[in-house]
Amino acid sequence: MRRLVAISSKTSKVMMALAALTITCTSLHLAASARMASLRRQQEALDESAVNNVPSPLSQSTTPAGPDTKHDGEVGAEQAGSGATQPSPAPVASAAVAFATAAVTHKREIVISIADRKLALLEDGRLLKTYPIAVGTRGTPSPDGDFVIINHAKDPVYRHGDKEIGPGKDNPLGSRWMGLSLKGYGIHGTNVQSSVGKAASHGCFRMRKQDVEELYSLVQVGDVVAIRRERDAMIAQVFASPIAPATTLAAQVTGAAETQIAAATVTTVETAQQ
Fold this sequence. Notes:
Layout: H1 2-53, H2 57-62, H3 72-79, H4 95-104, E1 108-113, E2 118-123, E3 126-132, E4 135-136, E5 145-154, E6 157-160, E7 163-165, E8 176-180, E9 186-188, E10 199-201, E11 205-206, H5 209-218, E12 224-228, H6 233-239, E13 268-270
Parallel strand pairs: 1-12, 4-10, 6-13, 9-11
Antiparallel strand pairs: 1-2, 2-3, 5-8, 5-12, 6-7, 8-9
């Protein structure tokens, strides 16, 4: 009887140990399952947040491009090189500014025919307009050759020797002066409007007030001035027809690029060649 009780006691202890082990394993399993479920929920929340933060392609395509909007070229600049971000370009200029900038790049040239007493303005080889001019007399002839405009002045002061005349109706240079790369000679207005179209100047080229002011607004320092005394092929090509010449004068004018160009605008003109 005692032996049976002992066996029963041992069996009971083993059963209790197995039950405790089973409970422990179950607890560990449940804890692990809960942890895995928690991790899955956190990952799903992160994925959902990432999806919500991606910009919609539709919203990108419907956003108007403005000064702060990056274009493909700007993005490429940031991605180039070692990955350092490059400075963003300046805001796009307005249409008016862009047009003005493009206009500055046009090549404008002046052609003067002493024989015809006319001045022609060309842009990129195309004839824009012709003007009547006064040229030098037989005793004070106008120069011929290839020159450039080296300075210009609005309402210039005329000075010759001790004589000085300020802006106004008595100024022999009129309201505008465009000086050539031949000292003392230029294209200018006049206080004797009736002399335009005649051989009446001291060597300069006179223009009517309205014409000289218009020309002044269209040319700049550095523009080529080709002056011809005789009616050669170039003069015939420019003045024979209002149709644009086939070629520019750049190939025909030699040595003009070597001429020194004054950067400053003058207001006082000393010349006896008006």
